[in-house]
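User: Show me sequence and structure for the first protein, then do the same for the second.

Assistant: Starting with the first protein.
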Amino acid sequence: MLLLSRALMSSLPITLADRCMALAAAFAETSIDQANALLVALPNDMRQSLRLDRNTLANALAHSNHTSAIVVHQVLDSLAALPPAASAPAFHALDALTQATKPFSQRQAGACLARALRNHGDCFLAIMDTLADAPRREILPLPRSASRAAAMRALAATDPLTAHRLAHALQSRSPTAVLDTMTDAPYDALTHIWRLLPDALRQSVPGDRYALASAAAAPGGADALMQTLRAWEEDNDPLPLLALRMLIDDNPDRRAQGVAVLARRPRQAVALLPLFQDDLQTALTSDPVIAFASADMPPLHPSAPAQRRRRSQRGRAFDDERRCMARADSVTMKAMEPGQEGLP
């Protein structure tokens, strides 16, 4: 009840995202019948704010896109049939979307809708297809290429939130935004994301390959690490390269994602371990899957001065690599200005 009160009292200084997440938490693991029983116990004003008039909402969406209200109503009926942990925040986000008049507010509502329907991509796309062009562009701006637009919709069918984030990252043409999207994406979406990137971003997201290898390799091992990564990339397998880029980052979420990616590739993780500096070896072998896969490897116990020296070398190389990535952001923006490549 407290979660519902927090979610529905929009006068409080909390965001739409906060309210939607509170609704999802309040209805977690409840059936539609259980949710209805909970609604009956609520005060009238709270109950009415949750039980939106579907006819009014359908008419608002249909009017904005010249779509038949009957078609929109069918889509909303499908939404209402979803588990309440998804449907309640999704309806709340849709209601906010119909009232939003500025692109930023439409994008915020779209992000909340995508999060609520993250496991219900078909319903997300059905809703998208009822919207007017302006809000649809804020929720999921599609590439101009028909094949890549279809690929983006395919990603949205499996993970609407990742598709929403990636679409805006591509629109901003920012390697950092793409890397943020990959950091939060599930493993199965990473290769799909890579295929959607234009060539310029495929180069700038990992950054300079040799700087990357130098930042991670054991002393004298940068060339061997570079050759190993290049061989996998030439085999159309970019994930070890991306995992390494995340592993050397100072953001703990990126580092954790780098470990998680290689844990799904234990053979590659074992191949990389001898080439890495000791702190990266420690980070990887802290994962039980990688630890088990590498159990037969001889342990490496560098001296304390050697550990400090390697971390210092890696820090300097990483600073150089970060500066490369900052420059790449600027170069990518210039290389993809409107009238040249734009959204692929």
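Switching to the second protein now.
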Amino acid sequence: MSDSPYAPPQATVADATPSAPPPPRPDGIDRAVTLIWIDFAIGITASVLQLAKLKAGVGLAMVGGIYLATFAFSAWVYIGVGNGRHWARAAYFILIVLSFLGTCIMLLRHLRPGDAQSTLDILLTLISLGLEIDVVVLLLSRPVREWFYSMRGRA
């Protein structure tokens, strides 16, 4: 063994053992991911409509920044769901709970006189809610659940 700090290491180097191929992706995950991205597009559309109602100024910039950060985080989670990341699936469920609460608040506000939302806003919200319910059902289905658990530990 050499005392030189530039000497090559003496450890034995071997190729890593090949890991098993990833399990096949169930059809339910493909459908869920497609519905997630459709819901994402509806969310962007609804947000643009909301931003169009605001007057230019600090409030518009702040709300626009919040929307941008929310959509960036959501896209990151959705990509994780599509890649079989269990943390992303859990984060998606949390986002859905928050979305559901927001939908309830929006619909209750619509019932109060003087706080009318446009029919398009309500329609987009209800379509989005329906898609989200379908995605949750798909993500909780047995084949998709098993696929997520089998994907644990994969990079």
